[in-house]
Amino acid sequence: MVLMLAERYGGVAMLPWVAICDLPTVLEPLRVDAEVGSLYTKRDDLTSAAYGGNKARKLELLLGGALAEGRKAVVTFGAYGSNHALATAVHAFALGLEPHVVLSPQPPGPFVARTLRAHAWLGTAIHPIAGWDGRREAVRVLRELTVRDTIEPAVIPMGGTNALGAVAYVNAAFELLEDAGAGHPPNRVYVAAGTLGTAIGLAIGFAAAGAPTRVEAVRVTPTEICNVEIARELCDRTIELLSGLAPSFPTLHFEDLPFTLREEYAGPGYGVATPETVRAVSAARDAGIALETTYTGKAFAALLDDARAGRLAGERVVFWNTYSSAPLPPRGRDQALPDVVRVYVEECDRLYPATVEAFEEGATP
């Protein structure tokens, strides 16, 4: 995973990691009905055939660290429909680690029930909570698992976002620049910003490489999870980690990063599909890529609006597809879900019956 970054900064090779991804992912031309100099999509939906998307890159380091430390279980966090929580469960099971997920409620959505039923099939230990702050439940779970296993479980933050997880996308920035070829770096990269690890990692990578590539990070989560101060702190910690591994890594500060946090596409709440998001997902489908309405659809909506406003004329632009296109695990039994989650799944079925039927026929969102 870290080979491109380690070629320039050898100390990075000391980080433990486990091979999960098929890298590099491809960079493909993308045609849309909007004015863009040239548009490409970075196909991180193809990072892994087991479960792809941007989380798989981070998990190479995060789960690699868990294995190196001899952990037996991992605990992570997310909303009911969290792609990160499901990706962690899929890859943890494959590596012999027991996954526990602390899940927060979100408005019913067309694909959330299918994600939860995938957890039921896998046998993920689900710990539902009432809000977004899972610290109390995490402490309880950690204590129980530590007593059982005689070693603490690995704790993976929401979205896989910490300094270690962000390093995966510092490396990915170097990968993209190699994809683009010498002398042809993109002017902008559009990416969904949930917990900011992907966006900040990319921005650090572009800055370290001296590339004039601005990251347009489109916020999709509540402001208490995704804001400029959190981005600044994550930037500082990631650069501190890299500088400790490789003293020659550039001395960068948050103000040095080519980074813009776009606030205007979050909509009325996490997971709520706005009209512009639905139109963006449809436009992406016409262009040959499958997106969803919680993350990638909102990022693509920002790109399309900027293009149609003439802000991207003559520019080289990349849309970073962070959504997994791998088939979901099979549908498990609702009885395997905690009671409150099972009631939620029934509500999703009631509100989105056609979507549920499409999933039962093997369709993907």
Describe this structure in words.
The protein is 42% helix and 13% strand. The chain is an alpha/beta fold. A 6-stranded mixed beta sheet has the order 1-2-10-7-8-9, with helices on both faces. Strand 3 (73-79), helix 3 and strand 4 form a beta-alpha-beta unit. Helix 2 packs across helix 6. The chain starts with a helix and ends in a 5-residue tail after the last helix.
Q: What distance separates the N and C termini?
A: 28 Å
Helix/strand structural class = alpha/beta
Widest sheet: strand ordering: 1-2-10-7-8-9
Record field, number of beta strands: 10
Give the SSE string: HEEHEHEHEHEHEHEHEHHEHH
Rg on CA atoms, Å: 20 Å
Strand content: 5-15%
Instruction: Describe the main β-sheet briefly.
Output: 6 strands, mixed
Model regions low in confidence, pLDDT < 50 over at least 5 residues: 359-365
> How much helicity do the residues have?
40-55%
Shape descriptor: globular
